[in-house]
C-alpha cells in the first residue's frame, strides 16, 4: 500500500498544531504535563526498540515466491507442494547467530536461513541455517551453548575460553565447528550460500504414508566465501555489507534464487541407518538418499519498512501445515516450544496477527485479548470448542500421523556417539589449500584460550577425526603431540 503524506497527527489521529515547541508555563517553563503530544512522542520513543532476538539478532529479509518444479505429491499432501507450477509467496530472513543487532555482517558465524511460506492452509515456517548440521543435538544444552557465544558477565567481552571449553567438552560439536572454521564460515554474500532445514522432518501423503525428509536450498548464484582479511576489513569499513548487498541486488532486479531439494528416507530405515537420522549433528549421505528436486525460490521484492517486516517477522519450526510434521529430533523438539515462546516475549502474544506474520489463510481460533490486539479480536464469534453454536471445530483429516516410540522415561542420550567419522570425511574432502586455511583459522581462534588443558582436549577431537588434522593444529599452537594421549 502506498503511503501518502498529509497532516501530522497524534497516534490516535488528532491533528498536531505545533511539533517544534513543548507546552510550557511561559517561555522558560517548566514544561506542562498536559502536553500529551510531547508525552506520547517521548514514551513511544522509549519503546521503539523491541528486545532484540537472543540469537539471530541482526538480519536481512526479502519477499519472493516459491514455485514447484517437480511432483512430490506421492510423498506429502501439503497443498503448496501439490502441483508443478504452483506458486506460494514467501518471506525470507537471513541472519548472523551470535552477534548483537549492531554487529558486523562479515564475522565468522553460522547464518540463519528462515523461510515463511504463506500457504493456503496456513503459514509454514522452515527455520534453518546455512549449514546442514548444528553444534549440539539436545535442546537442554542450548542456553549453555549460546551463553558461551555471548559476552563475559564481568568483562562484557567475547570469551574464547568459554567457546572452546564448551566445544571441547561437547564432542558432538566437531562437525559444525569444522564447517564454521572452514571457508564456509564467512559467506561472500547472503545470496552466495546454501540453506538447510538442518533437522529431520516428516512428510505424510494423502494416503497417510509417511517418510522422513531433509531440506536443501542450493543457491543458483554459486557458493562464494570471503577471505579472512577482506572480511575483517569489511567489518570495519561496512559492517552492514551483507544487508546492503541483498537490498541492492533486488533493487537492481538481480533477483537471487535457490533450488529446493529434499532427501527422502523410508520410515523403517531410521531403525537401521548407520547414523541416527534424528541427530542434527549428522548428515545423511547423498549416496544413500539422493537429492530430489522440489522447486525454486526467488526473492524479488525488498521490504518497505525494515522494522515492520524484518524485525517483527517471527518464525517457528513448529508452524506446520498438513502433510509436514515433526520428527523425534531432540533439538527440534525443544525448538518447537522455544521459538514461539521467544516471539511471545519479544513481540507479543499476538505476533501472528501482524501483517508480516499474518497467514493468507483464514484464522479461526479461540485466542482472544492480549497486548496489541488490533484486529476484531474474534468479534462476537464463539470463543470455545467444542460448542453447540456453529463455531470452529477440529478436523480429523488434519490429525498428526503417529510414529512408534519405545523405552523407559528418563534423561536419555543418543545411542550413537561417533562424532568423528563425518568431520574426518569432511576434512579429507577439502583441498590442501582449504585444509591449510581451516587449520590456520582454528589455530588463530584458539590462541587466546588461556588453559592448555582446553586446547589439548579440543586437539584430541581433531586428531580422532584425522591424525593429520590434529597434528597440524597442535603444531600451530606449539603443543607436543605426545600430550594428546
Automatic annotation (TrEMBL):
Q: Which organism is it from?
A: Paenibacillus glycanilyticus
Its family remark reads: Belongs to the catalase family.
Q: Where is the composition biased (Polar residues)?
A: 1-12
Domain of life of the organism encoding this protein: Bacteria
**What CDD domains would the database entry show?**
catalase_clade_3 (cd08156)
- The gene name on file is katA
Q: Which Pfam families match?
A: Catalase, Catalase-rel
Is DNA-binding among the key words of this record? no
What are the alphabetically sorted keywords of the record?
A: Heme, Hydrogen peroxide, Iron, Metal-binding, Oxidoreductase, Peroxidase
Q: What is this protein called?
A: Catalase
Q: What is its EC number?
A: 1.11.1.6
Instruction: Tell me yes or no: is Oxidoreductase among this UniProt entry's keywords.
Output: yes
The organism's taxonomy opens as: Bacteria, Bacillati, Bacillota, Bacilli, Bacillales
Chemical reaction(s) catalysed:
2 H2O2 = O2 + 2 H2O
Q: Which InterPro entries match?
A: Catalase (IPR018028), Catalase_3 (IPR040333), Catalase_AS (IPR024708), Catalase_clade1/3 (IPR024711), Catalase_core (IPR011614), Catalase_haem_BS (IPR002226), Catalase_immune_responsive (IPR010582), Catalase_sf (IPR020835)
Q: Where is the Catalase core domain?
A: 9-393
Q: Where is this region: Disordered?
A: 1-27
Amino acid at each position: 500500500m502506498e503511503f501518502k503524506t498529509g497532516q501530522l497527527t497524534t497516534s490516535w489521529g488528532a491533528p498536531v498544531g505545533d511539533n517544534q515547541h513543548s507546552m510550557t508555563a511561559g517561555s522558560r517553563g517548566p514544561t506542562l504535563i498536559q502536553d500529551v503530544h510531547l508525552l506520547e512522542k517521548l514514551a513511544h520513543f522509549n519503546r521503539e526498540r523491541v528486545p532484540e532476538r537472543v540469537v539471530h539478532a541482526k538480519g536481512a529479509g526479502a519477499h519472493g515466491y516459491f514455485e514447484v518444479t517437480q511432483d512430490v505429491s506421492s510423498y506429502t499432501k501439503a497443498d503448496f507442494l501439490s502441483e508443478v507450477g504452483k506458486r506460494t509467496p514467501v518471506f525470507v530472513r537471513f541472519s548472523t547467530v551470535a552477534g548483537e543487532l549492531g554487529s558486523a555482517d562479515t564475522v565468522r558465524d553460522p547464518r540463519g536461513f528462515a523461510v515463511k511460506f504463506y500457504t493456503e492452509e496456513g503459514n509454514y515456517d522452515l527455520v534453518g541455517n546455512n549449514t546442514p548440521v548444528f553444534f549440539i543435538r539436545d535442546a537442554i544444552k542450548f542456553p549453555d551453548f549460546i551463553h558461551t557465544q555471548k559476552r563475559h558477565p564481568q568483562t562484557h567481552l567475547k570469551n574464547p575460553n568459554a567457546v572452546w571449553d564448551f566445544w571441547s567438552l561437547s564432542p558432538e560439536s566437531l562437525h559444525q565447528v569444522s564447517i564454521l572454521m572452514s571457508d564456509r564460515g564467512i559467506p561472500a554474500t547472503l545470496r552466495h550460500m546454501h540453506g538447510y532445514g538442518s533437522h529431520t522432518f516428516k512428510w505424510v501423503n494423502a494416503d497417510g504414508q509417511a517418510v522422513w525428509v531433509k531440506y536443501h536450498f542450493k543457491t543458483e548464484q554459486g557458493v562464494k566465501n570471503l577471505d579472512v582479511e577482506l572480511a575483517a576489513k569489511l567489518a570495519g569499513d561496512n559492517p552492514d555489507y551483507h544487508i546492503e548487498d541483498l537490498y541492492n541486488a533486488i533493487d537492481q532486479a538481480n533477483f537471487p534464487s535457490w533450488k529446493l531439494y529434499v532427501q527422502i528416507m523410508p520410515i523403517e530405515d531410521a531403525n537401521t541407518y548407520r547414523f541416527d537420522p534424528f541427530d542434527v549433528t549428522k548428515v545423511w549421505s547423498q549416496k544413500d538418499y539422493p537429492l530430489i528436486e522440489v522447486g525454486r525460490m526467488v526473492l524479488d521484492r525488498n521490504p518497505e519498512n525494515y522494522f515492520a517486516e524484518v524485525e517483527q517477522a517471527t518464525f517457528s519450526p513448529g508452524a506446520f501445515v498438513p502433510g509436514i510434521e515433526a520428527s523425534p529430533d531432540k533439538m527440534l523438539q525443544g525448538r518447537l516450544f522455544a521459538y514461539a515462546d521467544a516471539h511471545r516475549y519479544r513481540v507479543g502474544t499476538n505476533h501472528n496477527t501482524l501483517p508480516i506474520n499474518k497467514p493468507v489463510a483464514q484464522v479461526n481460533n479461540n485466542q482472544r485479548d492480549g497486548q496489541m490486539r488490533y484486529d476484531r479480536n474474534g468479534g462476537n464469534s464463539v470463543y470455545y470448542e467444542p460448542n453447540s453454536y456453529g463455531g470452529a471445530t477440529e478436523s480429523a483429516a488434519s490429525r498428526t500421523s503417529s510414529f512408534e516410540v519405545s523405552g523407559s522415561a528418563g534423561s536419555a542420550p543418543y545411542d550413537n556417539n561417533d562424532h568423528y567419522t563425518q568431520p574426518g570425511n569432511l576434512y579429507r574432502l577439502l583441498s590442501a589449500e582449504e585444509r591449510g586455511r581451516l587449520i590456520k583459522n582454528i589455530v588463530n581462534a584458539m590462541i587466546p584460550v588461556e588453559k592448555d588443558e582446553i586446547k589439548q582436549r579440543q586437539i584430541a577431537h581433531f586428531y580422532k577425526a584425522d591424525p593429520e588434522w590434529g597434528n597440524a593444529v597442535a603444531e600451530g599452537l606449539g603443543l607436543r603431540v605426545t600430550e594428546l594421549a
